[in-house]
Known about the structure:
Layout: H1 2-25, E1 27-33, E2 41-44, H2 49-59, E3 66-71, H3 75-85, E4 89-93, H4 99-112, E5 116-120, H5 134-142, E6 146-153, E7 156-159, E8 166-169, E9 174-181
Parallel strand pairs: 1-9, 2-5, 2-6, 3-4, 3-5
Antiparallel strand pairs: 6-9, 7-8
Helix pairs in contact: 1-3
Amino acid sequence: MRLKKIGENALQWLFTNYLGWIERTVTIRWEEENRYGDSQIFGFWHEDSFFMNLVLEKLAHKTAPVDVIVTADTRGNYIENMVRRCGGNALRVPDGFKAFAALKKIVQDSYEKTHSIAVALDGPLGPRHEPKKLAFYLSEHAEEDFVGISLSYSSCLRIRSRWDKYVIPLPYTTVTVAVKNYGVVKKNQIPKLPVSAPEPVPEPVSGVELLPKR
Length: 214
């Protein structure tokens, strides 16, 4: 048990310090179609969870403080540590039927205090890029706008052995963050959501015409 705890602490230290290195070296390119209100429901793909800590930290300055829904099992411990490091608050929610009571309290709290909520759309265990109804349930019952967030990276490591193909951005990379407001979305009317942000269009060099790819 002690060795397990030591291992968890070491991983948390590694994740947190690497996130700080990324924060110091990354360039973020924003593509925003959103009017930031007092509180909103943010949805993102699970594969982007690592960098989303920095995205949500910056969005918190534009809207209310952001609470992030995190699984209640051991995997959530690492996520909660990074969420706190970025000034957010983790809402631990168990998987399966036990989630109902926790979600009921989250909805109730949304009426009583001003805060935004973020959730991985296809989390905690997939299938990849198939959104579950949680974010839209919160949007419908709390009557808050759903805001979809998609990312793309100029360079990154992708763990292809994982179900979500988890992304770890490399230092000095450029990350494009696309933010789109869909309004209040009902859980039975989920819109088609992009799986990544659009790639930037290269600027033409003076005197040279860029032709479309064939």
